[in-house]
Each structure stands twice: as structure tokens, then as C-alpha cells.
């Protein structure tokens, strides 16, 4: 069963988010609000799951993850496929 997710309108008005190219905005939005998210902003995100939901290749997903790690917005453990969104509480 899917859960309802409240989307904070401040997300789209954030200076960092507004500065992103479209593809990165959509990916960051996906990281914040996909159905795997939880109340802590730390969750399991298998690449296969993200590939299926976003319709992007494995390499493209890895590239986007690396960009957001480099931006200091997420941490990602390739071994456990866990993600931590560092600005989680800013938008929730």
C-alpha cells in the first residue's frame, strides 16, 4: 500500500534546488519524495529500483548519486545501497 507524502513547497524555492539543471532537480526531488523514503531520510535505495522508477540507466543513476555526494547533499553506501539525505529535515 502506498503512503501519502506531504511535499514542502520550500523545496522548489530553495536556492540550491533552483540552481540545478532540470535533470538534477527531478532526481533530487525523487530522492526526497520517492516511496522508499521514511521519516528519517535514511533508507535503502537499490539502483535497480531507481532505474525502474526513473527510466534511467544504471550508469546515469550512479552519476547523479555521485554529483549529489559531491554537492554535500547525500551520503550513499554502494555496498548496502543505503542513502542518507543530509538536508532531509530542512524540507520535512
**Structural shape:** globular
**How is the largest sheet built, in terms of strand order?**
1-3-2
- Radius of gyration, CA atoms, in whole angstroms: 12 Å
What is the strand tally? 3
> For the residues shown, what is the average pLDDT?
90
- Major sheet size, sense and barrel closure: 3 strands, antiparallel
Instruction: Assign the CATH superfamily.
Output: Winged helix-like DNA-binding domain superfamily/Winged helix DNA-binding domain
Assigned CATH class = Mainly Alpha
Amino-to-carboxy terminus distance:
21 Å
Strand content: 5-15%
What is the structural class?
mainly alpha
Supply the number of structural domains: 1
What name is given to the CATH topology?
A: Arc Repressor Mutant, subunit A
Amount of helix: 40-55%
Q: Spell the H/E element sequence.
A: HHHEHHEEH
Low-confidence stretches: none
CATH architecture grouping: Orthogonal Bundle
Instruction: Enumerate how many helices there are, as a single number.
Output: 6
What does this entry look like structurally?
- The protein has 92 residues and is mainly α.
- The chain is 50% helix and 12% strand.
- The protein has 6 helices and 3 strands.
- The chain has helices spanning 10-13, 15-19, 22-33, 47-54, 58-70, 88-91; strands at residues 42-44, 74-77, 82-85.
- A 3-stranded antiparallel β-sheet has the order 1-3-2.
- The mean pLDDT is 90.
Amino acid at each position: 500500500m502506498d503512503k501519502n507524502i506531504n511535499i514542502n513547497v520550500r523545496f522548489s524555492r530553495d536556492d540550491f534546488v533552483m540552481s540545478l539543471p532540470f535533470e538534477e532537480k527531478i532526481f533530487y526531488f525523487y530522492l526526497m519524495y520517492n516511496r522508499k523514503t521514511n521519516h528519517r531520510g535514511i533508507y535503502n535505495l537499490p539502483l535497480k529500483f531507481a532505474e525502474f522508477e526513473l527510466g534511467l540507466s544504471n550508469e546515469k543513476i550512479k552519476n547523479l548519486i555521485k554529483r549529489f555526494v559531491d554537492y554535500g547533499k547525500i551520503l550513499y553506501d554502494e555496498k548496502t545501497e543505503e542513502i542518507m539525505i543530509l538536508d532531509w529535515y530542512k524540507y520535512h
